[in-house]
Amino acid sequence: MYAYKPPTVSDTQSSNNYLDSTNQGRRKQNGSRPTSLAMPFQPDNFQTVGVGACIVNPENKIVGIGYNGMPNGCDDDLLPWSRYADDRLDTKYPYVCHAELNAIMNKNSADVKGCSMYVALFPCNECAKLIIQAGIKEVIYLSDKYHDTTEMTASRRLLNLAGIEYKQFKPKRNKIVIDFNSINHSGMHNGTLGIHSP
Prior knowledge:
Elements: H1 9-13, E1 17-19, E2 27-29, E3 52-56, E4 62-67, H2 99-105, E5 116-121, H3 125-134, E6 138-143, H4 150-162, E7 165-168, E8 177-178, E9 195-196
Parallel strand pairs: 5-6, 6-7
Antiparallel strand pairs: 1-2, 3-4, 3-5, 8-9
Helix pairs in contact: 3-4
């Protein structure tokens, strides 16, 4: 079962400050990129990498977030998380909801038309359909490791036909570290909130 539960939209709505791509503790306002909310995470089951997605409106306010997981009401412990098995029904693929789907379903506004989506992995063809139907105008992704698969080729075709821009986010550092213990120390005066690059 997942131990990670991403913040809700209401948790993040009050702040429009995000780390800039240099990850040096500096913050940007108005025009910043909320890439950290779309970063991959490691769930407790260690059989898969969690994927996050974040939808941002034209004012750079977060209007939806999601992560890959089982549908609401379906116990994570009762469904498979394997990537490989003799029978496809014994893998996660027929069951899991992708981060993009959850971000769109978890939106806090009437629609997400004209918004941007930040996601850890380039969206599959099924998610591309949802992105198009939702009216999202731009997709910023971190990794395209499945680029040559049929699903990703179909996704690019769909996004191109719909006129949706997509581009890869290339961070200047390969990781950030969040030190949750720093909140208890007096070093908070510099405003970094314990987030720094190693």
